[in-house]
Every structure is written in structure tokens, then in C-alpha cells.
Design a protein that fits this description.
alpha+beta, 30% helix, five-stranded antiparallel beta sheet, five-stranded mixed beta sheet, Uridine Diphospho-n-acetylenolpyruvylglucosamine Reductase, domain 2, 4 domains, Ubiquitin-like (UB roll), Uridine Diphospho-n-acetylenolpyruvylglucosamine Reductase, domain 3
Length: 489
């Protein structure tokens, strides 16, 4: 699938490999876009063949979020779920946190990074929209020329194109932290509530001396309506000096449409997108005017990263032989040059199901280093030296995991094909929330599709497994396996 795999342990090592191999190697963090692009032939080496992978997720110090001199600096390994869980991002860059929460599903958000989203540069990528509204800056680095920092608007040079030389890596991005006089939000329109590509998305930022004062500054960014994410400059200018009244909001929303140049595609007609630009812009401004820009934000979002802090890298097991992972508590050799899904199945773990192979259905959900991920979107080599749990590790025929028992009691198994993925996501939820309610259970399972469409019994089973009448301790409730024993190798 890819020509070779390298896992540098320092940034200098990664830059040296990039300087040597250029387009013949692609930097990868989450891989949630890149593996699909390689499979579809979108990303190729200079020779036209599949490129190699330069996996950055073993390099320490690249998954930090910190404020320095009024700017929030975000490392290249920071995932969407890290932003969702970051008090700093939620408090001082809320439109970005909201956009991260709208990306994919928990398993995707545990792997996908903001920098990866930027480099893919699709106009429908959710986080680019608030980053543009927040005047983000991108820092890139090469071994020969060192670092350079440029505005995000200049980094995005066209449809799925960025200003990144063959020997450069993105080493971070920064957004100016919002102050007490600023408010903003992000709204996404998709064809379903999760796992949906944007039909239209809008990020709005307003600055006023007080809620009753005129607008001092406005930023409106639009996604999925042009070859790149764009700012609605005319609408922004029209709001400055105005109170947020129904009339000024309606006028600005109409002007926002001028920045859009949408196309007809499978998700929407161009006419519908134009109409939704006006509708969503007006909706966002009305919410800010009413002080409701954070409406619907969960106090404690479900993350499915268990007892970890959700950041990469996680220290590997140095005692494991090369090309082996600790799978369900024992050392297992995993073949490479393929997704983890195919590698696990080749190693005999048939409970990991292949559904869509695109990160859409969740049937291949496993735990990697304590976090729920979709195995179809992880390079197999990334699991070498790591801990993996599959559905085979949850329970035994003699002693079922509480979730397995609850699914039987609730009649939630149905055809059974998607069941392993549901079990792995739910096990992580119980590790994170021992007694989930219906909302938390449903939220945890947004990345898992059941083609039989009977979600009620599945959600009921998850709640049943965690309630006082059905202890979640019996099978470990999603606890990670102990380190591999030498005798088991």
C-alpha cells in the first residue's frame, strides 16, 4: 500500500529524511486522510508510485497546546480530541474547539490532527474554517533553511494545495487567543449528525466593547463553498460600527453569499449551498447577539481515550521483539505495509471486522495504546511496540465481559457483524465513564454504524452494563491488558 515506513524519534531525524526523500516520503500523524489518499492514488512519489510514510507520532514534544504572549500554540501532533478536551482552547478559541468536536467520530478525533487537516487542504475540512477566522499562522521547517511562519491564508494556495516544499514539515500553528470582548462560534451543516463531510460550514468571530455596543471587528469564514476556505470580507466590513440587530445581521448574511462560489456535487447543489451560507451566517450572528454561542456544548465530552491523556507519543514496550505488538496481552508479529485492520486479521484476529475501510463505519474499532481508533486508518507498523486490544481480549466464553452479557440481555447483537466495533467503543466509554447515561452512550457510539438500524437495544445494553445492577467490573470494563509476559512470546 505504501513503499516503506519510517518512525523517527526526533524532529531533526524526521527533517533529515524529508530532505533526502522529498515527495517520495509523506509525513503522517493521524493518517486518517493520507492512507485513503495513497490508496486512491491522490498522493504519489516523484516516480508515480506510492510514497513511503514518515510517521511522526513517536517524536516527543509535538503534541502540546500552550499560550505564549497572547497566542495559542498548537503542536503538529495535537489531535482534534485534545483540542476538545483543552480548557485553553475551549475558553480562548471556542470556534476551533467546536469545529474539532464536529470532526468525524471519537475514534477519528483520537488520531486525526489539526496540522494533518491543514495539509490535506480540502475546503470541506472543518477546522480550517475557524482557524482562518482566528487569523491562524502556520510554521514550517526544513533542515536546510530552518523555520518560516506565514499566515494560514497564504499557506493555502489552492484546492488541496499548500505552500510546503518537498523538504519541509509543518512544525506548528498558532491562533490569537480570544479576549473577554470577543465571541465566536462554528456551525456545520452535514447530511447527518456525525461522520459527515460538510455541505457548508461557517465560523464567525465578533468583537464588541460590550454586548450592547457596536461591532469593532468581525471575521466570517466559509467552508465547502469555494476551492479554498474563504473570508466573507464584504460581510465583515458591513458589520463594523453596527449593533447586532435583525436588520444588520440580515444584511451581513446576504453579503456573505458574495464570497461563495459553490459547485453542484453529490452532497448538495450550488444553489442550496448559497442559501445555506446566508442562513448559517445569520444563525451564527443571532446566537452571538443572544449570548448563546456556546449553546449545546457538552460539559464533559466523551473522548474514548480511557485513562490516557489522549496525546501521542505513548511510550512503547522496548522489551517487545521487532515488528511485534502486545495484542490482548501477548506478543504478536504483525505484518507491515498495510493498514492495522488487515494486519490484525492476517495475524488471526478475525473479530476486527472490515466494513468500509474508510473510517466511516467503526466495525474495525480497536484500542491502540489505550485509545479507541479505527484500525483501517492506522499503519500496521504504528502498532509495533504498542499495546493493542481487540474484541477477542474483552472476555471469554466462560466469562463474558459485562457489555457482551448486556448485549445478549438487550437483544442488541442483531446480525453481529458490527458488534465487535460497538463493543470496543463502549468498553472505552465504560473505562472513561463507569456509569454512562443514554446521551453519553449514544455519543460514544457515533462512529459505529449498524446496518440493521437497531440502535436502541445497543445503547440500552451500554447503559445496562454500567448501571449499579450490572457491574462493569466483571471483564475489566475495557481495562488495558497487562504488559506482555516473556513466557507468552
Amino acid at each position: 500500500m505504501y513503499a516503506f515506513y519510517r518512525s523517527p524519534e526526533t524532529l531533526g531525524e524526521a527533517l533529515a529524511w524529508k530532505a533526502r526523500d522529498g515527495h517520495n516520503v509523506r509525513a503522517v500523524a493521524g493518517a486518517t486522510d493520507l492512507l485513503l489518499e495513497i490508496e486512491r492514488g491522490v498522493r504519489r512519489s516523484d516516480s508515480g508510485e506510492p510514497p513511503g510514510l514518515l510517521d511522526l507520532t513517536r517524536i516527543p514534544g509535538l503534541a502540546t497546546i500552550e499560550e505564549r504572549a497572547g497566542w495559542i500554540h498548537i503542536g503538529p501532533l495535537v489531535t482534534h480530541n485534545q483540542c476538545v478536551a483543552s480548557p485553553l482552547v475551549v475558553e480562548r478559541a471556542f470556534p476551533l474547539a467546536r469545529a474539532c468536536w464536529e470532526v468525524g467520530a471519537p475514534q477519528i478525533r483520537n488520531r486525526a490532527t489539526l496540522v494533518g487537516n491543514l495539509v490535506t487542504a480540502s475546503p470541506a475540512n472543518d477546522t480550517i474554517v475557524p482557524l482562518l477566522a482566528l487569523d491562524a499562522q502556520v510554521t514550517v521547517c526544513s533542515l536546510a533553511r530552518g523555520e518560516r511562519t506565514l499566515p494560514l491564508a497564504e499557506f493555502l494556495t489552492g484546492f488541496r494545495r499548500v505552500d510546503l516544499a518537498p523538504d519541509e514539515l509543518v512544525t506548528g500553528l498558532a491562533v490569537r487567543a480570544l479576549g473577554p470582548q470577543q465571541a465566536g462560534l462554528f456551525i456545520k451543516l452535514g447530511l447527518r449528525q456525525a461522520q459527515a463531510i460538510s455541505v457548508v460550514s461557517v465560523a464567525v468571530l465578533i468583537e464588541r466593547a460590550s454586548p450592547a455596543a457596536p461591532v469593532v471587528r468581525a471575521a466570517i469564514a466559509l467552508g465547502a463553498v469555494a476551492p479554498v476556505v474563504v473570508r466573507a470580507a464584504a460581510a465583515e466590513a458591513a458589520l463594523v460600527g453596527q449593533l447586532l440587530t435583525p436588520a444588520s445581521i440580515a444584511a451581513a448574511a446576504r453579503l456573505a453569499v458574495e464570497a461563495a462560489s459553490p459547485i453542484d456535487d453529490l452532497r448538495s447543489s450550488a444553489a442550496y449551498r448559497r442559501a445555506m451560507v446566508e442562513t448559517l451566517t445569520a444563525r451564527a450572528l443571532h446566537q452571538i447577539a443572544a449570548g448563546q454561542e456556546r449553546a449545546g456544548w457538552p460539559d464533559h465530552p466523551v473522548l474514548l481515550w480511557g485513562s490516557t491523556d489522549g496525546s501521542w507519543p505513548v511510550a512503547g514496550d522496548a522489551a517487545l521483539p521487532p515488528e511485534e505488538a502486545c495484542v490482548n496481552g501477548r506478543s504478536v508479529r504483525l505484518p507491515g505495509a498495510m493498514p492495522l485492520l488487515a494486519s490484525l486479521r492476517a495475524a488471526g484476529f478475525w473479530g476486527v471486522k472490515e466494513g468500509c475501510s474508510e473510517g466511516e463505519c467503526g466495525a474495525c474499532t480497536v484500542s491502540l495504546d489505550g485509545m479507541a481508533v479505527m484500525a483501517c486508518m492506522v499503519p500496521a507498523e504504528r502498532a509495533w511496540g504498542s499495546r493493542v486490544m481487540t474484541v477477542e481480549g474483552l472476555g471469554t466464553a466462560a466469562q463474558l465481559h459485562p457489555l457482551q452479557q448486556a448485549l445478549i440481555q438487550s437483544g442488541g447483537v442483531q446480525c453481529g457483524y458490527c458488534t465487535p466495533g460497538f463493543l470496543m467503543s463502549a468498553a472505552k466509554l465504560l473505562e472513561e465513564r463507569p456509569h454512562p447515561d443514554v446521551r453519553e452512550a449514544a455519543e460514544a457510539l457515533t462512529g459505529n454504524f449498524c446496518r440493521c438500524t437497531g440502535y436502541h437495544q445497543i445503547v440500552e445494553a451500554v447503559v445496562r452494563a454500567g448501571n449499579p445492577g450490572g457491574s462493569s467490573d466483571g471483564g475489566g470494563a475495557g481495562a488495558e491488558p497487562s504488559p506482555c509476559e516473556t513466557a507468552g512470546r
